Amino acid sequence: MSNAEDRSVARRAMIVIGLVLATMFGLALIWATRRVLVWVLIAAFFAVALKPLVDGLERRLVRHRALATLLVFLAAFGLLTALAAVILLPLLDEVGRFADRAPELLRETRAGRGPFAELLERLRLREYASAHADQIKRYGTQLSQPAVGLIRGVLQTLAGLLTVIVLAYLMVLEAPKIIAATLALVGDGSARRLRRLGRDASRTITGYLSGNLLISVICGGLTFLVLVVTKVPFAGVIALLVAIADLIPLVGATLGAIIAAGAGFLHSPTAGIVVLVFFVVYQQVENHLLQPVIMSRAVRLNPLTVLVSVLLAAELAGLVGALLAIPAAGIGQILLREFTPSGLRTVPPPATGGNERPGKRSAGGGHPGTGNPPPAGG
């Protein structure tokens, strides 16, 4: 009996040790492949957002899914290319003009004339440069060292962007096969539940994207008005850059403020101060009013949950966490509503249209008093 007990204890200890080692190995594997996993997560996010467009195009106009997927992705890239052209063409034109005038501006600055000379005198940069000439030369020689790292970072970013695009394209293209294979592994009841969860998750991600775009449009429009009032040149291009930067939660308005305030200060100190004050006020309004309220309606989360989820995710995972925090919180709410026992449910059901009367379905999506899902199509 003693030997049997010893063998049982040894077996349990080996099981515990094996589980601990397997967990450590899994965490180490996740950490080693974290970059690829982030790419896959971002690609899945965009695939879920683009899938309804591909499904609608395939159902109404194009019968081949590969062609429908290609057309949707080409349209998305065409839109992005048009936005890039609107932003880059005026900037490249101005860079060319500046390059043509650079020798003349340099001569004027050395002679103590022109706008750059006035700026140097106003900020006392000429005196600083004379007093720290050796230090500036030393910094100049050190600039070549991080250049290699910068180039490597740019190449990695481009590779990641291309990988995300290819992954998202393949996910959308193969979505029906993946969904059918997954549903075939479970029973009819579980298949209906999975289909309902997927539909609610897709609605959450789409609502997040539409809400985020609405906030960016508001930010870009108000920025354009402020830049026009202060007579800052290229107000439309700068406002578009600010709207794109504002797609990033929490810090997007700060990035946009740097762009717009810099352009304002280059135009005049008064314009720069006005733009800076506007963004200080607007960022507080966006972070604590617009984003929580709009996202709470788009994703059906209360404003406090939206704000806390973004703050926590940004602290844990940085920029990617801030981008994915709100849809992740919405999907978490869907899972809680689906798998929490009916007597403990306090999470409201998602909006399913105006034709459904209250009380027709229970909070978990099944018939009242039962744990079974409704029949298909009901």
TrEMBL record:
<dbReference type="InterPro" id="IPR002549">
    <property type="entry name" value="AI-2E-like"/>
</dbReference>
<dbReference type="GO" id="GO:0055085">
    <property type="term" value="P:transmembrane transport"/>
</dbReference>
<feature type="transmembrane region" description="Helical">
    <location>
        <begin position="36"/>
        <end position="54"/>
    </location>
</feature>
<dbReference type="GO" id="GO:0005886">
    <property type="term" value="C:plasma membrane"/>
</dbReference>
<keyword id="KW-1133">Transmembrane helix</keyword>
<feature type="transmembrane region" description="Helical">
    <location>
        <begin position="305"/>
        <end position="336"/>
    </location>
</feature>
<feature type="transmembrane region" description="Helical">
    <location>
        <begin position="265"/>
        <end position="285"/>
    </location>
</feature>
<feature type="transmembrane region" description="Helical">
    <location>
        <begin position="234"/>
        <end position="258"/>
    </location>
</feature>
<feature type="transmembrane region" description="Helical">
    <location>
        <begin position="12"/>
        <end position="30"/>
    </location>
</feature>
<feature type="transmembrane region" description="Helical">
    <location>
        <begin position="66"/>
        <end position="92"/>
    </location>
</feature>
<dbReference type="Pfam" id="PF01594">
    <property type="entry name" value="AI-2E_transport"/>
</dbReference>
<feature type="transmembrane region" description="Helical">
    <location>
        <begin position="158"/>
        <end position="186"/>
    </location>
</feature>
<keyword id="KW-1003">Cell membrane</keyword>
<keyword id="KW-0813">Transport</keyword>
<comment type="similarity">
    <text>Belongs to the autoinducer-2 exporter (AI-2E) (TC 2.A.86) family.</text>
</comment>
<keyword id="KW-0472">Membrane</keyword>
<keyword id="KW-0812">Transmembrane</keyword>
<protein>
    <submittedName>
        <fullName>AI-2E family transporter</fullName>
    </submittedName>
</protein>
<feature type="transmembrane region" description="Helical">
    <location>
        <begin position="207"/>
        <end position="228"/>
    </location>
</feature>
<feature type="region of interest" description="Disordered">
    <location>
        <begin position="345"/>
        <end position="378"/>
    </location>
</feature>
